[in-house]
Specification:
The protein is an all-alpha fold. The chain has one helix at 2-16.
Length: 68
């Protein structure tokens, strides 16, 4: 009986730590202000850049020997 009470106590202590969320919290804390890199919708802005690399790889497959 003491083991089941201990498990119940542990389960209740974990559930007590979860705080309810505030539905009236300002969205400014959650969503950053749009800037040149990222728009308010999350789409890339005019200052967004991405690295690009193009490679040319000369490869032959030898299916008979299972080699590249």
């Amino acid at each position: 009986m003491t083991v089941s009470r201990f498990i119940l106590l542990v389960a209740l202590s974990f559930s007590a730590g979860a705080a309810p969320r505030d539905p009236f919290k300002q969205l400014d804390d959650v969503w950053p202000t749009p800037d040149a890199m990222r728009r308010a919708s999350g789409a890339p802005g005019p200052g967004y850049w991405q690295q690009q690399a193009d490679y040319v790889i000369d490869v032959e497959l030898d299916e008979a020997k299972n080699r590249i």
